[in-house]
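Crash report, auto-generated. Payload:
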Amino acid sequence: MEIFYAIMAGTLYGLVIGIIPSAGATTGLVAMFGFIGWFASFDPYLGVIFVMAVVASSTTGDSFSGVLLGIPGANSAAATMVDGFPLALQGKATYALTAAITTSTVNGLLWGTLTFALLPWYSNLIMIFGIPELWAFVMLALATVGFVSSKYWVRSIIAICIGCFIGLIGMDPETAADRYTGGWDYLADSVQIMPFVAGLFAVPEIIKGLVSATTVAKMETSQKGQTWDGVKAVWENKWDGLRGGFIGAFIGFLPGLGGAMSDWMAYGATTAANPNEKIPFGQGNIKGVIGPEGSNNAQKATSMIPTVLFGIPGASFAAIVMALFMYLDFELGTPDLVYDDKFFSSLFIGFMGATIAVCIICLVFTRWIALITYVPYWIYGPLLLIFVTWACVQYTGGWEDYAIFALCSILGLAAKHLKFSRPAMLIGFILADRIESLSLQMSSLYTIDKLLDRPIFLGLCVAVIGMFVYGVFFNKNKLDYS
Amino acid sequence: MFKKLLVTVAVATSFATSAFADITLVVPQKPGSGTTVWTEIVAKELEPFLGEKINIKLIPGARDIPGFNKWHNELRQLDDHFMVSHGGNGVSFLADKVDYNYDDYESIGLMNLNIIAAHRTDADKNKPSFSSGSGMVPEAFAMTLLICGPDKSMQEYIDCFKENVTWVAGMKGSERRLAFKRGELSGTRENPAAFKKHAQPTIDAGEAELWFHHGILDAANASHSDDPNYPGFQLEILFEQKWGVAPSGDFYNSYVLVKSFRDGMQKAIWANKGNPNSAKLQDALRRMAADPDAVAAIQKKVGNYEWLIGADGDQQRDTLMTFITEDALKNLVKFNVEALSLKAIYKADLVK
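Recovered output after restart:
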């Protein structure tokens, strides 16, 4: 019974965190340091179940914000809103959310099973992917988002460059000297992800909602019956969801890449696989929801592989999970832990139990939650702004947090107005330091001859070049999302 | 509803932790970082002996300097605020622009530890590849000594390092560990607890071997002694075995300086001088360090390190300060800038 309570408590907590715009799993996990000690003194295995439940449910929950409000629930859930939010505008929020939740659940269960049942087997596989392959993957992600996130691909490239520049503010990894800070010491620790995501996406949507003083959707379309339609849509587009799941799982498996690029690669693969759609992508095509939503729960599951096996975090949320588990007396990456069956059972039960629980809760309540799209924005917009602001000032709590949030909001408003792809800017921001550090590492450790001996690296490079050529010369992308 | 509930909980938690917290430990890092986790673990064990609630205040910032500066400039005047620092703060103190100064504080307690390096068996120890960063400076000195031998000028050591060592920038700790396991890096280093976790399995698999360690600082004698857990692998011993003489000279003195400031105060709790609560906290720490259960709980999570409490910690700090000489500091800065491409400044005011 205690296990059930732990799953349900973790699920509800994670769901609430997931629903808060721009927050996501990492925020929810960081807040857990305040009460994880209770589990340590009571039953640490219940703590493991609770943590995994938070990971699984917050990842499913972050679809709500993207679909209902056009604000990503987490930085790894930005692609969902590109088609999800237009569906909400058309009064089909329940349809979009149900499809998102169902495909998240299916892929979460599938990849959760494959991850936790076969965990020890993956250690050799991870060793195949070295620094050059990770570098090429990052470049492929950039190329994908550059050409799929908007039909204005030149502006997308510029947006990526702007994002990269902002992402490079902070410390030069070669000299440990401050860089691009303009003498503002606060920036020496780089621009934090939370105000950047919130400023880029949340504030422009909130302001738009407040200015228009209306509801997200008209009451013309009933939410009734949309739940079943959403489930059916997942079955009809099962290959898009499974492809997204595979992409998310693979990227989660590669240490350090994180989830931000997986949903965009899944979205890009979905648009490429469906070139002749009646409903264009970006205007409410349900496949644009199912593809990326397939990836994020799968990515969360497989991120645990390098985290558990080597004590090397597969993504940012996994680093917090590691610290929480250490507090519970489970040190990930140690050989002793491999023989702790109860620990592995707890990981499995927590993740899978919450995946199922959050699916049931969401499917039951989605059509009611979706009614928020009929509520005038001025009623909940200010509250939303307070929450987003609160999330953004958790770094130091000082005036600098507010200032950087304000600057990022101005950037977001300008990008939206001038049709510069905000997702492209976000992905550039997130991947900037990865590009730089992996480039430095690769150039230090590998010669051209050594690189030419690596077939996976070469294959990925060909894919990057192919994506570039396709994007410049043959791209018929009509996506008008900024 | 959910959101209102969350705000209520957050506000209530915030009030609860601040209202009942009698002692605040300031940590210059984000949640989940090494020293933050260490502080949480130690605070949990320390609370029963202190009989008061310990609040942990995180003040993150670049290179973990702003938090320490803020405590030095503002918070240390508050009698209930104490600072938790780590080895990186010690390295920054020597060659970075910081406000804090260990001379202005009294030690509540500190942990003195050793850092151990491993090397891939299939790679040439005279041509190592190693992850860069300000935290790796002592390792850069050590491998330069082992590779290049005695009786060289500072410039010759710098040239020798640049010729033989591949210094790989941009690696986080987790990337370094994986790159070492994969064989992309030929060398790595860890503290004793992390060494057992990350390097020992590779050694056990026959793919790597112990390379060197820096020794344990003996404050009373102002020297480093061999680590009984890894006997015979102290840099000084290996150097003498390889080159027939004990290491000495300007370059070696700079090495002793930087390794001592990083490892000799790897984890430390500081109070402002004259803080009336210091004795209470030192006493609680002494009783905790004498309690087998508390020690076992801490050792299990953060490793088996020696505690130096109160006056012993002050003596350790005072010993470290004696290592700061004009030549040692200038050469450290020169090596940082010219060999390691790190930003570093010479701070004349540190030399007494």
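Post-recovery validation: Chain A has one domain: 2-474.
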